[in-house]
Amino acid sequence: NKSFDYELRIGIFGAGGVGKSTITIKFTHNIFIEEYDPTIEDEYIKEIELNDKKILLKVLDTAYPEEFCDPFPRWVEFSQVFVLVYSIIDKYSFGEILNYHYKRIKNILNVQDYPKILIGNKSDLFTKREVKTKKGKELAKQLNCKYIETSAKTGENLNQLFYEASLLAIQELKNK
Ligand code: GDP
Ligand code: MG
Predict the structure, then answer these.
(1) How far is residue 103's CA from residue 110's CA, in Å, rounded to a whole number?
(2) Cα angle at 147 between 161 and 20, to 5 degrees?
(3) Would you state the pLDDT for residue 69?
(4) Beta-bridge mates of residue 119
(5) pTM of the shown model
(6) Which of 57, 75, 111, 168 has its CA 20 to 30 A from that of 7?
(7) Beta strands of 16-145 (E only): which ranges?
(8) Cα–Cα distance, 33 to 26 (Å, whole number)
(9) Would you place residue 1 in the very low, low, confident or very high pLDDT band (cuts 50, 70, 90)?
(10) Which residue's CA lies nearest to atom 15 of ligand 1?
């Protein structure tokens, strides 16, 4: 019977195919998934320690179901921190962060700003890169958040991602 100092909820947002499921499953189960049903939404848990605190992380891997019933507001309600993911080999997914994900979350929360991290995923595929690191950094500055490049394949910076997200979530809890 374990007790945790914190229970944190992190939502993973971004366009289809950017690696939301792969990031989530690689971090929580240390498995790289070659192919995962793009319509499955699920919640994953992982126990971590951070600055001597026991933390239960709940990670929401968002995905649009095949039948249309807009789940977006429910995802926003779940999340204390928003991980906004694009793929560095997909320019379109980069544009979607500002045009769609960032704005929808902001409108639903009805606030000036909210806790988030910008992620450029698939850094291992740098030879196919369509979005320069500089672009990611500029967007993060505009959105007032950190920028991290990750690879769900090699695992690069995934711990960093969830470490930063957890810090933000704890901060958010303390502010309330
Ligand atoms: P989602 O729609 O955002 O959940 O995207 P998925 O997690 O299903 O990933 C889409 C495809 O990209 C899958 O074939 C993954 O194996 C692949 N993928 C995801 N992340 C990475 C990565 O960091 N590097 C590489 N090489 N492939 C990745
Ligand atoms: Mg998915």
Answers:
(1) 10
(2) 50
(3) 86
(4) 85, 148
(5) 0.97
(6) 111
(7) 42-50, 53-61, 81-87, 116-121
(8) 8
(9) low
(10) 34
Chain centre distance of CA 89: 17
- How many angstroms does the Cα of residue 162 sit away from the middle of ligand 2? 18
- The amino acid at residue 161 is L
Pairing of the two strands 42-50 and 81-87: unpaired
Ligand 1 atom nearest to CA at 22: 7
121 strand-pairing partners:
87
- For residue 37 the two structure tokens come to 């049903």
Distance 13 CA to ligand 1 centre (A): 13
Please state the atom number of ligand 1 nearest to the C-alpha of residue 85. 3
Residue 136 φ then ψ, to 5°: -65, -45
Q: 22 in ligand 1 pocket by Cβ < 6 Å?
A: yes
Residue type, 134: K
Mutate to test the pocket of ligand 1, among 12, 13, 22 (most ligand atoms within 8 A of CB): 22
Residue-wise pLDDT tens digits, 97-153: 999 999 999 999 999 999 999 999 999 999 999 999 999 999 999 999 999 999 999
Closest residue to atom 18 of ligand 1, CA basis? 19
